[in-house]
UniProtKB/TrEMBL annotation:
<dbReference type="Pfam" id="PF00232">
    <property type="entry name" value="Glyco_hydro_1"/>
</dbReference>
<keyword id="KW-0378">Hydrolase</keyword>
<dbReference type="GO" id="GO:0016052">
    <property type="term" value="P:carbohydrate catabolic process"/>
</dbReference>
<comment type="similarity">
    <text>Belongs to the glycosyl hydrolase 1 family.</text>
</comment>
<dbReference type="InterPro" id="IPR001360">
    <property type="entry name" value="Glyco_hydro_1"/>
</dbReference>
<protein>
    <submittedName>
        <fullName>Beta-glucosidase</fullName>
        <ecNumber>3.2.1.21</ecNumber>
    </submittedName>
</protein>
<dbReference type="InterPro" id="IPR017853">
    <property type="entry name" value="GH"/>
</dbReference>
<dbReference type="GO" id="GO:0008422">
    <property type="term" value="F:beta-glucosidase activity"/>
</dbReference>
<keyword id="KW-0326">Glycosidase</keyword>
<dbReference type="InterPro" id="IPR033132">
    <property type="entry name" value="GH_1_N_CS"/>
</dbReference>
<dbReference type="GO" id="GO:0005829">
    <property type="term" value="C:cytosol"/>
</dbReference>
Amino acid sequence: MLACAKGIAFPDGFLFGTSTSAHQTEGGNTTSDWWQLEHRTGRIPEPSGDAADSYHRWPVDMDLLAELGFTDYRFGIEWARIEPEPGHFSRAALAHYRRMVDGALERGLRPMVTLHHFTLPRWFAERGGWRAPDAVERFARYVAATAPVITDGVRHVCTINEPNTVAALHTLTAADPPSAPGLPLPDPELTAVLIAAHRAAAAAVRAVSPRIQVGWSVANQCYQAVPGAEEVTAAYRHPREDVFLEAARADDWVGVQAYTRTRIGPRGPLPVREGAELTLTGREFYPEALGEAVRHTAEVVGDVPVIVTGNGLATRDDSRRISYTHQALRDLAAALADGLDIRGYLHRSALDGYEWGSYRPTFGLITVDPQSFLRVPKPSARWLGRIARSGFLPAP
């Protein structure tokens, strides 16, 4: 880490890219539980539909990311597509995702592959989902089947995205989106199942290739205690976050996903302070969350390297996205300068996509026209791409 009056240089080999998830961008994920939730329950105001049609247009997405200067791309693969019926593994789906890995490598993008990002095969959900007695074994079997996708050229695999969100919101609704602050208390039994599933998946990945580095990404809510509420905050945080970080102590890396803060008073979460700038998801504009989350994660996991796998802003004002990200990166650089082992920063999201019930919150660095699917990079994409290409964060 080199700092000077002109800016800050990130370490050689630092992962610098963007993130997407499969269901939010691919479109047409018809064999998933979320598709059924969107179309058959009446609880979701806006279905995903074609999303950004990235299932077919991923080469365009990767071309843009490479041209913009990014060196890394985190994307998900869909269990529901790979195993649409129990025990039936689609060779076509596996070949599709392998083409994505090869396509990333051909463009100079290092792929990070996420194996599970909220959605499940419909058949798995109908059997009880994570509550089924053989859920861990079924998940590990799926992970082993992804060998053709991840064996060659994939250095980092994320087993489960935000398991603490999954445990807290195992029955997702439009009123409680997956990454909402102030998460309810996770179900303890489901927490234990997800930790077991992660460990089984990590073992399955390492059996595929010992060269792959395995971890999972935790939703960091950046809990802050008001004076006098320190014990309440610690008790509130542990089952919602720290237990999942503690489970990562045997991993090759742990993912940090931070967007805002959650202030805790004597009786629990407090509302966003009056007059605060809000994002399109109703959260406080608080870029300092990333630095605080990274430091807290490092305290819990010890020597495990940290990768920022999700950080960004839902806004229509792209200048605020740049301001937010610049401050977040400065705080990240300060943590690096203090000796924290931070290996990368993956911005969420590469594209404007489906935000679990609505297309209104726009997290993307790239705009996607909902009719033509034309991709147009925003100024923030070009700004962040220059930083990724140079490895240098200019002074404000």
